[in-house]
UniProtKB/TrEMBL annotation:
Belongs to the class-I pyridoxal-phosphate-dependent aminotransferase family. It catalyses: L-aspartate + 2-oxoglutarate = oxaloacetate + L-glutamate. Gene3D superfamilies: Aspartate Aminotransferase, domain 1, Type I PLP-dependent aspartate aminotransferase-like (Major domain). Residues 32-392 form the Aminotransferase class I/classII large domain. Its cofactor is pyridoxal 5'-phosphate. Pfam families: Aminotran_1_2 (PF00155). The lineage of its organism: Bacteria, Pseudomonadati, Pseudomonadota, Alphaproteobacteria, Rhodobacterales. Keywords: Aminotransferase, Pyridoxal phosphate, Transferase. The keyword NADP does not apply. It is an enzyme of class 2 (transferase). This is Aminotransferase. GO terms for molecular function: transaminase activity. InterPro entries: Aminotransferase_I/II_large, AspAT/PAT-like, NHTrfase_class1_PyrdxlP-BS, PyrdxlP-dep_Trfase, PyrdxlP-dep_Trfase_major, PyrdxlP-dep_Trfase_small.
């Protein structure tokens, strides 16, 4: 009998973290690897946010806090929800966790029983299905397609709902595709959900502020007020505020659900870092002036990557509305062979050969539930992106 829990057999390690670790290992060994696998902005945390953290340390705000966040941060979340989405929440409806991942995990742990189904559109963030499995639920993966720019349609959602469905996990703009849902597209989905009152909505709005070409972000409870009482709106400061290492995420939803999440957090990690919480207060309440200039940089990088990758025969690269990812299809390259003899029969084989033979790290599409594709993160310098895309062009041209 194994000493380890049977639960571990239901889940797998994060492929994105594994590829990032492999990249770091090769770099340490002297390889000139360009990493396009990590979903982490290369911008520094804005100075006003860092100053707030230093001030918190100087003021001795280094003690334990309430398990799911200080009142000041919960109030800042409420103000943000009102300001950006017109949604009214009280601090008792807010949970603050150690990163956005924890708030999602807590909610699933607090609500799922054996047999409960969770609808997850694919491509999906790699952690969604495994968190559902850890919580004892059943992921119901619904594959989208390039034809709909990787967006779930109302008909697909309707067909996936069963009496056992408990949640829809909804992510816009998306990791890994960058696809963002318009108001009209989101309204079509919320109309379906209104016909099925037993289905709750868990939104992952982490890339909310990273939007281009006039795309206007919206969140489900904002589009359909009738969903307010069964929506958990999740977000955090990691991406737009370049605070990945600070580890602060938050969620707003019904009091009963938030209380259940608090109970789980109180018996697991307890409170997030007190200093990070005070930095997050400044992030939400302070100036937002850096967001627009940062988005100009991200858009330029997006366009650079799409232009270079679109020149490759056998590769299709749609233009996303937001986030900092592109998700090209390699359908036209399947079956070819690399110069070192690797048969490109899957997107995983493509990604491995690209790393081993061209020193570019990307994440293969199967990790996100939809193949044959790969994810490129363009949250790095223009110079690195130009060099990496040129290497991808040369590698693809060398396939026979």
């Amino acid at each position: 009998m194994s000493f380890l829990s049977n639960t571990l057999s239901r889940v797998k390690p994060s492929p994105t973290i594994a590829m990032t670790a492999k990249t770091a290992e090769l770099k340490a060994a002297g390889r000139d690897v360009i990493g396009l696998s990590a979903g982490e902005p290369d911008f520094d945390t804005p100075q006003n946010i860092k100053d707030a953290a230093v001030a918190a340390i100087a003021a001795g705000k280094t003690k334990y806090t309430a398990p799911d966040g200080i009142p000041e941060l919960k109030q800042a979340v409420c103000a943000k929800m009102k300001r950006d989405h017109g949604l009214e929440y009280t601090p008792g409806q807010v949970s603050v966790g150690t990163g956005g991942k924890q708030t999602l995990y807590n909610a699933l742990m607090a609500t799922l029983n054996d047999g409960d189904e969770v609808i997850i559109p694919a491509p999906y963030w790699v952690s969604y299905p495994d968190m559902v499995l850890l919580a004892g639920g059943t992921p119901v993966v619904v594959e989208t397609s390039l034809d709909t720019k990787f967006k779930l349609t109302a008909d697909q959602l309707e067909a996936a709902i069963t009496p056992k469905t408990k949640w829809l996990i909804f992510n816009s703009p998306s990791n890994p595709t960058g696809a963002g849902y318009s108001r009209e597209e989101l309204k079509a989905l919320t109309d379906v959900l209104m016909r099925h009152p037993h289905v709750w909505v868990m939104t992952d709005d982490m890339y909310e502020h990273l939007a281009y070409d006039g795309f206007e972000f919206c969140t489900p409870a904002e589009i359909e007020p009738g969903l307010y009482d069964r929506t958990l709106t999740c977000n955090g400061v990691s991406k737009a505020y370049a605070m990945t290492g600070w580890r602060i995420g938050y969620a707003a939803g019904p009091v009963e659900l938030i209380a259940a999440m608090r109970k789980i957090q109180s018996q697991s990690t307890s409170n997030p870092c007190s200093i990070s919480q005070w930095a997050a207060v400044e992030a939400l309440n302070g100036t937002q002036d850096f967001l627009a200039p940062n988005n100009v940089v991200f858009k330029r990088r997006r366009d650079l990557v799409i232009e270079m990758l679109s020149q490759i025969d056998g590769l299709t690269c749609p233009t996303p509305e937001g986030a900092f990812y592109v998700y090209p299809s390699i359908d036209g390259l399947i079956g070819k062979t690399s110069p070192k003899g690797t048969v490109i029969d899957t997107d995983e084989a493509f990604a491995n050969a690209l790393l081993n033979e061209a020193d570019v790290a990307v994440v293969f599409g199967a990790a996100f539930g939809l193949s044959p594709n790969f994810r490129v993160s363009y949250a790095t310098s223009d110079e690195a992106l130009k060099t990496a895309c040129a290497r991808i062009q040369d590698f693809c041209a060398s396939l026979t």
